[in-house]
């Protein structure tokens, strides 16, 4: 072990002044069986550090054919190995300069053993959660309503929250938010996606009841709905439908729902478009308005991100195009969009790339990077920066 005199001699050879250095001098030595493979380093931001210090966990998720991501309770991060030319040493109990005593009159030695070393570390970069797989899994066995005539429902391909956390590359909070967004429902401990036709059947029951009772769409009583519709569908399914298409609130100790006009109109538009390749726009708008509950008004703005209007065709047409069905990768998304249409206006393409924007990033910045703009008949349009295979 080095003595203070040996350290002072080394400083002199290095032409360093002892008074310019800390009074506490660490003498490092390698312990037995030290290996670079024993430890991995990970760089965390302040938020993640505080979560770890508070006892929360970070989880690495991904199947064997996927690139691993790291998830906190509510965020998802890409993992990337960063190499460094400096050798990083693991020294237990080593103190930083601000932790050292500053009242020492003379230099003194602290002998410390190195437990491990590394020349790379994991770098974290916040990313969008990979949620496309969630809907794909739940679509393997959609819920079509209670079994009829004593038939047993197929129990395969049903997933608990634990199963989803094992399979989906997203944080628990992000998974729960997406389950709500896609109208999934927990049935017998498993998360299920309702068959679209069954979901529309439930919505139809509720809409017809509201109409027959002459209720306001902003004041739909839960208890009355459950009592009136119980002979037709399970009460929990009726309540689930109300939660999907309305805002729950309490007034005079009564649970009421204010139904979302835009969501109901959009759902009925999807019902009309699901089996049509293209629909004459004018005819569609007429049929659509006739299909929604009396008192509700349809608007093409309600279909942003779920249907695409072609103003260049004669007659004008509309077709189903849901953003949730598009690739999650940014470059793949743009490639797919430009195979569907060579040139896009800003209004048409924005709903299909909005979800790709990172923090403090705009759709304009994405278009600048992945598309080329030009003017066509006085309107700015965007086309691909690279050749697109059709």
Adjacency order of strands in the biggest sheet = 2-3-4-6
Helix content: 25-40%
Proportion of residues in β-strands: 15-25%
Number of strands: 17
Q: What is the arithmetic mean of pLDDT?
A: 89
Radius of gyration: 30 Å
Tell me the number of helical segments per DSSP (H or I, 4 or more residues long): 13
Largest beta-sheet details: 4 strands, antiparallel
Summary, kept brief:
Helix content is 32%, strand content 24%. The protein is built from 13 helices and 17 strands.
Account of the 3D structure:
The chain is α+β, with helices and mostly antiparallel strands and 390 residues long. The chain contains 13 helices and 17 strands. The strands form six sheets. It has a four-stranded antiparallel sheet, covered by helices on one side. It has a three-stranded antiparallel sheet with strand order 9-11-10. A three-stranded antiparallel sheet has the order 12-14-13. A hairpin with a 2-residue loop joins strand 10 and strand 11. Helix 6 crosses helix 8. It starts with a helix and ends in a 6-residue tail after the last strand.
């Amino acid at each position: 072990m080095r003595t203070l005199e040996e350290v002072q001699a080394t400083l002199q050879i290095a032409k360093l002044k002892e008074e310019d250095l800390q009074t506490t001098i660490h003498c490092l030595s390698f312990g037995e069986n030290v290996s670079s493979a024993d430890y991995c380093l990970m760089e965390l931001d302040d938020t993640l550090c505080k979560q770890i210090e508070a006892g929360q966990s970070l989880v690495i998720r991904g199947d064997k054919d996927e690139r691993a991501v790291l998830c906190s309770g509510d965020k998802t991060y890409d993992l990337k190995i960063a190499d460094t030319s400096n050798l990083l040493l693991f020294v237990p109990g080593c103190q930083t300069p601000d932790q050292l005593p500053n009242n020492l009159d003379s230099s003194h030695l602290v002998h410390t053993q190195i437990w491990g070393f590394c020349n790379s570390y994991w770098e974290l970069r916040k990313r969008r959660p990979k949620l496309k797989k969630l809907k794909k899994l739940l679509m393997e066995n959609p819920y079509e309503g209670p079994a009829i005539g004593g038939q047993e429902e197929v129990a395969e391909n049903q997933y608990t929250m634990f199963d989803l956390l094992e399979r989906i590359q997203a944080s628990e909070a992000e998974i729960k938010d997406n389950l709500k967004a896609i109208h999934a429902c927990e049935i017998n401990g498993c998360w299920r996606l309702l068959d679209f036709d069954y979901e529309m059947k439930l919505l139809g029951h509720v809409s017809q009841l509201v109409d027959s009772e002459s209720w306001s769409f902003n004041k739909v009583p839960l208890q009355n709905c459950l009592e009136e519709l119980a002979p037709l569908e399970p009460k929990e399914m009726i309540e689930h439908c109300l939660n999907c298409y309305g805002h729950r609130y309490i007034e005079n100790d009564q649970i009421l729902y204010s139904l979302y006009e835009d969501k109901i109109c959009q759902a009925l538009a999807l019902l009309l478009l699901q089996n049509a390749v293209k629909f004459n726009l004018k005819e569609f708008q007429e049929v659509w308005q006739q299909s929604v509950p009396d008192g509700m008004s349809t608007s093409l703005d309600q279909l942003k991100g779920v249907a695409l209007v072609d103003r260049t065709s004669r007659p004008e047409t509309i077709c189903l195009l849901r953003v949730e069905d598009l690739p999650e990768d940014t470059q793949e998304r743009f490639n797919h969009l430009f195979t569907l249409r060579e040139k896009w206006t800003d209004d048409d393409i924005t709903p299909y790339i909005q979800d790709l924007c990172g923090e403090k990033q705009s759709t304009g910045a994405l278009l600048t990077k992945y598309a080329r703009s030009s003017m066509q008949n006085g309107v700015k349009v965007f086309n691909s920066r690279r050749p697109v295979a059709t």
